[in-house]
Amino acid sequence: MKYSEIKENEEVLALLEKGNANLGTLGYTDHSKIHCTLVAEGAGKLLEQFGYSRHEIELAKIAGFMHDIGNAVNRSHHAEYGALLANDILKKSDMKVADRVTIVSAIGNHDESTGGAVDAVSAALIIADKTDVRRNRVRNKEKSAFDIHDRVNYAVTQAKLKVDIEKKTISLNLQIDEQICTMYEYFEIFLGRMMMCRRAAEILGARFKLTANGQKVL
């Protein structure tokens, strides 16, 4: 099964739609097909920039697109649920067992509460997922009702991920409106995710750097 087929798979799309609806009811930010497509493309681009094979790039894209399907079951342990669901879906295809297991492992390890990068595919997925921070992921339209997650995402007016192959660095450069969210609040929510990105970058043979409003943070 190819990435192009996964993007059109009825079961995958239904799980993503239900998971995103569940999270919307619970007050979480957007985890829709848009987010998953950005993660898939971002993960593939990272591996391409670091010289990985087309095959590994394809696996990273598939894992990236499917990584949040577990939210259809429950937000808690959604990575593990997603891995099991992905395994069932991919079993129905002609995909090699080793490739299916690589994708399942990446999905099962993408959440900072229980996982971490274990190979290049999972590392690319983690970095692409955790660096998708943007204002339009906030679904709550009433600023007065924002929780800290809403404020943190809404406060990010610009986020750019830059790869420098010569220096072997992966840099996330953020512009944050500190009138909306303080730097302390940002790191209260995102420090664990950024540390996860740092370990993932090491798997790719690189260093992860974070700058916020022009200041080096990590």
Number of strands: 4
Shape: globular
Mean pLDDT: 95
CATH class: Mainly Alpha
Report on the biggest sheet.
4 strands, mixed
Q: Give the strand line-up of the largest sheet.
A: 1-2-3-4
For this structure, what is the CATH homologous superfamily?
Hypothetical protein af1432
Helix fraction by DSSP (H/I, runs of at least 4): 40-55%
Q: Helical region count?
A: 9
End-to-end separation in angstroms reads: 38 Å
Commentary on this structure:
- By secondary structure, the chain is an alpha+beta fold.
- It has one domain (3-216): Orthogonal Bundle (Hypothetical protein af1432), CATH 1.10.3210.
- The chain is 54% helix and 11% strand.
- Strands 1-2-3-4 form a four-stranded mixed beta sheet.
- Helix 6 (97-108) runs parallel beside helix 7 (120-130).
- It is globular, with a radius of gyration of 17 Å.
- It starts with a helix and ends with a strand.
- The relative contact order is 0.12.
How is this fold's topology laid out?
Layout: H1 3-6, H2 10-26, H3 33-49, H4 54-66, H5 78-91, H6 97-108, H7 120-130, H8 148-155, E1 156-164, E2 169-176, H9 183-203, E3 207-212, E4 215-216
Parallel strand pairs: 2-3
Antiparallel strand pairs: 1-2, 3-4
Helix pairs in contact: 3-4, 3-7, 4-6, 4-7, 5-6, 6-7, 7-9
Keywords, please?
about 220 residues, alpha+beta, 9 helices, about 55% helix
Put the structure in a nutshell.
54% of the residues lie in helices and 11% in strands.
